[in-house]
Amino acid sequence: MNFFSTSIFSGISTIIKLLSGLVINKIVAVFIGPSGIAMVGQFQNFLSMATTLGNGGISSGVTKYVAEYNEEKLLERNETISVAIVITVIISSIIGISIFFASNIFSLWILNSEKYSFIFKIYGLCLIVISINSLLLSIINGLKKIKIFISINIISNLVMLLLTTILTITFKIYGAFIALVISQALIIFITVPLMKRKVKINYSFKLVLKSKKYRKLFAFSIMTLVATFAGAGTQILIRNYITSEYSLEEAGYWQSVWMLSNIYLTVLTTAFSTYYLPKLSELKSNDDLKIEILSGYKIIIPFVFISSTIIFLFRDLIIVLVFAEEFLVIRTLILYQFIGNFFKMISWSISFLMLAKAMTKTFIFTEIIFSISFYVFVILFTRVYGLEGTTIAYAVNYFLYFLVMIFLFRKIFIPINTNK
Description:
Elements: H1 3-31, H2 34-54, H3 59-68, H4 74-101, H5 103-111, H6 117-142, H7 146-171, H8 173-186, H9 188-198, H10 213-245, H11 248-282, H12 286-313, H13 315-322, H14 334-356, H15 360-385, H16 388-413
Helix pairs in contact: 1-7, 1-11, 2-4, 2-6, 2-8, 2-10, 2-11, 3-4, 3-6, 3-10, 3-11, 4-6, 5-6, 6-8, 6-9, 7-8, 10-11, 10-15, 11-12, 11-14, 12-14, 14-16, 15-16
């Protein structure tokens, strides 16, 4: 499957995810309000960091090496899978137990109250299951079983929709938190049966004792952990800053804009993870890499521009449909958020190349620097423009990120041939 066909197929999944997300957002907005959306955003960022840490941050590495070790290198593929299983089980057990016994601390840190500690205990118990499911999905992705991969994502979205609807209406914010945790754990009961019928993998723990794959996978672990903690951690810091400087409701408004932009960009982020990472891992020559990335731009640029324009023109109607009338105040935040989205998406194909080619130092440096600059820009711009400054900061930050990615593309990835 090429990028176009993957985008189309992932689009089907995205439509379902979009509809599920719309319903979930509506339910949370109506039954909990802006403050609830801010808290849900905080908890989602925590789940992102903890889940990535739970599987050792090796998901991208597993996808890369499973894709790279083709049928002629089955022993190396099996060794990689075996090592990945060991890493996932050990680390997720340690992290899960830690979260369980430190649930009061995490509840106070993330949600500013110890009354949600029970939610963190549930998550601590579920983490090993969630991490194993994440590993299995990485293997499926690496094997290019795109239809199975996206089918599981579709089922996951439907399970999330059902649980969130029932539990949020019944238990309000508690229900929303429980749904976020339980839905991730339940998917393993879909993934495992599908893999048994559709995907053939082999593993042997005899291969793991002196394996050199640990070092290779942990090289990706560092990059993935940095990316996740930089991204989700920065959002937590920004949300805390807005809450302290303005209010929890204002943080909820900012989170709403973030959620709105993420919904329509899911089709691209899904295609990036399901197509780009395995594909870029396979390509060896600079010419092939350049052609692949430039061909992706033919889809990315029109899609982001057209979808952003449509949402901006009909923003009032969309805000009311997705959230509620009280959220109309976010209409002033949308323009700069969408400008930032444009630069973010056209930069990601190059940043994924860093991930695919294990360019650890460069990747870590750019992730940390631009996460710090985003937070700093938020503080600077909000002092002048108020809450709108958060989205201005986002646009400025990703414009600068885009410039850096272009520089890397020309000077590192695709060196200029001076002989021509």
